Amino acid sequence: MRILGIDPGYGIVGYGVVEYERGRFTPVKAGTIKTPSDMEFLKRLRVIYLDMQGLLEHYRPDEIAVEKLYFNTNTTTGIDVAQARGVTLLPAVMMNLPVYEYTPLQVKSSIVGYGYAEKRQVQEMVRSMLHLADIIKPDDAADAMAIAITHGLSVNTRKVLEKYNAAAK
After folding, report:
1. 140 tagged catalytic
2. Is 134 a catalytic residue?
3. What DSSP designation does 25 have?
4. What b/e string do you get for 71-80 counting C-beta neighbours within 10 Å, with b at 16 or more?
5. Which residue of the set 7, 51, 63, 143 is catalytic?
6. pLDDT confidence tier of residue 7, bands split at 50, 70 and 90
7. Of residues 51, 63, 140, 143, which has the active-site annotation?
8. Rounded Cα–Cα distance for residues 80 and 157 (Å)
């Protein structure tokens, strides 16, 4: 199964593509979609949409995993990120790809085993799980790869539960 993980934003959108087969992850590509801060916001959304559409067409993921948004105190920035997240996911929706959401707490718990792990701990575990020499850079791409891995691990759990539920019937 090919999974595309997405760390949404409007200045930088992180993405990570992994192959997940038989409990093993193989990295395919990690990177970012960047938009200049001096570009008009609606044009930034267009860039994100078109670039994501290109990524989906090129890498052909089976499923999409994205970080679920949460608002702290700056709702104005949150609204802009939410709009960017919408155009980031729209190409996947248009291609009828399944989209799954994970909170930062779920990602940290899945990768490190502790929901309040530090970013560096998550990055190091991603590096280890993918058998990479170095931590993925930039942080947005590393976060997206962690989201993709989290989804792969949850797929495994779902399959086990489906077998259990089928046997219980």
Report:
1. yes
2. no
3. E
4. eeeeeeeeeb
5. 7
6. very high
7. 140
8. 34
DSSP E strand stretches across 24-164: 24-34, 63-67, 99-102
- Is the torsion defined by CA of 162, 28, 85, 80 positive or negative? positive
Scanning the structure block, which residue is given the tokens 């940290």?
108
Among residues 51, 67, 118, 134, the one annotated as catalytic is 67
| Burial (Cβ within 10 Å: 0-12, 13-18, ≥19) of residue 23 | exposed
Checking if the pLDDT of 160 tops 80, the result is: no
- 7 is annotated as an active-site residue: yes
Report the candidate in 14, 10, 12 with the shortest Cα–Cα distance to residue 41. 10
Please check whether residue 107 is in contact with residue 67, taking contact to mean a CB–CB distance below 8 angstroms.
yes
What does residue 38 show for φ and ψ, rounded to 5 degrees?
-90, 0
Mean pLDDT of 103-120: 94
Q: For residue 71, is pLDDT > 70?
A: no
Global pTM exceeds 0.85: yes
Domains of the chain: 2-168 (3.30.420.10)
